[in-house]
Amino acid sequence: MGKRVFVLAETKDGKLRHVSYEALTVARQVAQGGEVNCVLFGPSSVDFTDEISKYGANKLYIVNDNRVDIYTTDAYVQTVSQLVNEIEPDVILMGHTAIGKDLAPRLAARLKFGLISDCTEVVPDGDNIVFSRPIYAGKAFQKRRFRKGLVFATLRPNNFEALEKPTKTEVVLFEPTIKDLRTIVKEIVKKTAGGGDLSEAKIIVSGGRGVKSTEGFKPLQELADVLGGAVAASRGACDAEFCDYSLQIGQTGKVVTPDLYIACGISGAIQHLAGMSNSKVIVAINKDPEAPIFEIADYGIVGDLFEVVPLLTKDFKKT
Ligand code: FAD
């Protein structure tokens, strides 16, 4: 029997986040001919109606209340709870983004349903759905089978295909009842350091303690610029104050799955691997041939990163 799936889509910097397309694609597979509903928040939601249609949503709810223009847990929990009561979905999906990580457990606790976070695989199996997620810092994968009852899953960004399937989408303006807000965000002030959104970057050039200084990140930034990528770091580099903690990849940092991860002067500690080992192609540059990062790298370059990185930049500039 077809399922009713509800996707919480997200926008960022005037664009629909890529993981929302991925979630809509997974939603169609899980729905198995059932209904795909989607919700968007914020003033520019109407601009994304065509995009949502392209990815097969049958119904798009646009929340018509300026108190959800900027994310706050309070306002979103109240709004989504009301939508869940209206839609009565079997499955709720959203990205394992900063908002997803905050909202999903709150909603699951409030509405008393199961939550499975940071999924890397979702497979419908008859009436059941099997979700896989990495555990023990990526050393193992846990499979969870949901048979009945509502389940909420957050999806690791950049991990699923985003496939178009144009559908006629009904657009519904939703007026939530929002009260007793404990938090009101008046303005978001962007940090100047930190660059783009790492969780959705296709190419990441990452530096470790081997980069040696803030200045040492410059060649990495140049390589990232040439490749159209973003710069990240190990905790070693962040602890040494070479860069901001917002760049940290790993168990206690961000989890990324880019197409290409170039690790420069990073030893490959298990806690770092937890954040990047699912990258599609890993290139390691390290002067120590015994560095553990080479065990998971697809391509390894044994050498001084201050010689190798500028050479790569020079070469990529030609192409
Ligand atoms: P190092 O281990 O010092 O490695 C530096 C590397 O640079 C060496 O391999 C060296 O050979 C190489 N090198 C030096 N100079 C050059 C050069 N000129 N050219 C090329 N190579 C060079 N770490 C994380 O990254 N992310 C996390 O989220 C995280 N969470 C943690 C949570 C806990 C609870 C704990 C205990 C630790 C955590 N760590 C985390 C820390 C982790 O254990 C490592 O200490 C850290 O990842 C090491 O960073 P690094 O590889 O940059 O430094």
From TrEMBL:
InterPro entries: DHS-like_NAD/FAD-binding_dom, ETF_a/b_N, ETF_a/FixB, ETF_alpha_N, ETF_asu_C, ETF_asu_C_CS, Rossmann-like_a/b/a_fold. Keywords: Electron transport, FAD, Flavoprotein, Transport. Its cofactor is FAD. The keyword Transport applies. One of its GO terms (biological process) is fatty acid beta-oxidation using acyl-CoA dehydrogenase. Residues 5-193 form the Electron transfer flavoprotein alpha/beta-subunit N-terminal domain. Gene3D superfamilies: HUPs (3.40.50.620), TPP-binding domain (3.40.50.1220). CDD domains: ETF_alpha. It comes from the Bacteria. Pfam families: ETF, ETF_alpha. One of its GO terms (molecular function) is electron transfer activity. Binds 1 FAD per dimer. FAD binds at residues 209, 234-235, 248-252, 265-272, 286. PROSITE patterns: ETF_ALPHA (PS00696). SMART domains: ETF. Belongs to the ETF alpha-subunit/FixB family. This is Electron transfer flavoprotein alpha subunit apoprotein.
